[in-house]
């Protein structure tokens, strides 16, 4: 089983590359951002809570996110493997994922960290904001998301370095070039 964590700051290409990865490797895909946006458009209680954090560029609380993954994990594990996109975003979430996967006798095979400079992240997200309709794709919220990434999410890199499953790759260039680097990493751990 190939369990992949696709990791990086907001706008690094996690969602974009996940689409390519699931097609080539036939993995189940779970994006916490997509799940939260579906809850928001469904006007659920979880969606109302999530919206209040997302609109400010803050992380949704760990217990909400971990509960959401817990509800999905059974339908995800098995078969070829899973790609976790936008999760874990805190060390607490990374520990929870490890425990959840252990219940199915499996673990994270590799964490792929997409490295992209801050200016490029801002440019991409502002560009997406012109058409996405996403409430968090405006300059003020983008800057907040990047600073939240630096303080709360970046420590997850050291968590996976300690587990010896971390790989950083350059996330700048064409989508195909970056996908080429990702496939080299995934083929080496398969
Ligand atoms: P996400 O939906 O995960 O949003 P994101 O970090 O901005 O990543 P996304 O996948 O959308 O962008 P991508 O890099 O693919 O999360 C949104 C919010 O939900 C968070 O801020 C948080 O509040 C909450 N949330 C989600 N998960 C959570 C968790 N686990 N814990 C707590 N809170 C959580 O792409 C960005 C843009 O770049 C795209 O427009 C794309 O077209 C473009 N792009 C991609 N690759 C490119 C390339 N090579 N060159 C040029 N442009 C490129």
Task: Please provide a brief summary of the model.
By secondary structure, the chain is an alpha/beta fold. It has helices at 14-25, 32-41, 45-54, 62-76, 91-102, 118-132, 139-153, 155-162, 175-189; strands at 4-7, 28-31, 82-85, 110-115, 166-170. Bound molecules: BIS(adenosine)-5'-tetraphosphate (B4P).
Structure write-up:
It catalyses: AMP + ATP = 2 ADP. One of its GO terms (cellular component) is cytoplasm. This is Adenylate kinase. It is found in: Cytoplasm. The protein is α/β, with parallel strands linked by helices and 190 residues long. It has a single domain (4-181), classed as P-loop containing nucleotide triphosphate hydrolases (Rossmann fold, 3-Layer(aba) Sandwich), CATH 3.40.50. The chain has helices at 14-25, 32-41, 45-54, 62-76, 91-102, 118-132, 139-153, 155-162, 175-189; strands spanning 4-7, 28-31, 82-85, 110-115, 166-170. Strands 2-3-1-4-5 form a 5-stranded parallel β-sheet, with helices on both faces. Helix 4 (62-76) packs parallel to helix 5 (91-102). The mean pLDDT is 96. The structure holds BIS(adenosine)-5'-tetraphosphate (B4P). BIS(adenosine)-5'-tetraphosphate (B4P) binds next to helix 1, helix 2, helix 3, helix 6 and helix 9.
Total discrete domains:
1
Supply the CATH class: Alpha Beta
Question: Mind telling me the C-alpha Rg?
Answer: 16 Å
Order of helices and strands: EHEHHHEHEHHHEH
Number of helices: 9
Structure classification: alpha/beta
Q: Label the CATH architecture.
A: 3-Layer(aba) Sandwich
Helical content (DSSP H or I, runs of 4+): 55-70%
List the ions, cofactors and other small molecules found in this model.
Answer: BIS(adenosine)-5'-tetraphosphate
Strand content: 5-15%
Report the CATH topology name: Rossmann fold
Separation of the first and last Cα atoms: 8 Å
Function: Catalyzes the reversible transfer of the terminal phosphate group between ATP and AMP. Plays an important role in cellular energy homeostasis and in adenine nucleotide metabolism.
Protein name: Adenylate kinase
Binding site for ATP: 11-16, 128, 173
Region (NMP): 31-60
């Amino acid at each position: 089983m190939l369990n992949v964590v696709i990791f990086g700051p907001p706008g690094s290409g996690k969602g974009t590359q996940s689409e390519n990865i699931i097609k080539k490797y036939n993995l189940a895909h779970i994006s916490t951002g997509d799940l939260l946006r579906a809850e928001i458009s469904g006007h659920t209680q979880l969606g109302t809570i999530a919206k209040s954090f997302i609109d400010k560029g803050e992380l949704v609380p760990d217990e909400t996110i971990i509960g959401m993954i817990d509800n999905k994990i059974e339908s995800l594990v098995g078969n070829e493997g899973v790609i976790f996109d936008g999760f874990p975003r805190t060390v607490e979430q990374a520990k929870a994922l490890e425990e959840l996967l252990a219940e199915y006798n499996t673990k994270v095979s590799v964490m792929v960290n997409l490295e992209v400079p801050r200016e490029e992240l801002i440019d991409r997200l502002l560009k997406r904001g012109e058409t996405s309709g996403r409430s968090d794709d405006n300059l003020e919220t983008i800057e907040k998301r990047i600073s939240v990434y630096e303080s709360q999410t970046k420590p997850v890199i050291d968590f996976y370095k300690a587990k010896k499953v971390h790989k950083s790759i350059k996330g700048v260039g064409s989508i195909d070039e970056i996908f080429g680097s990702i496939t080299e990493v995934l083929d080496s751990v398969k």
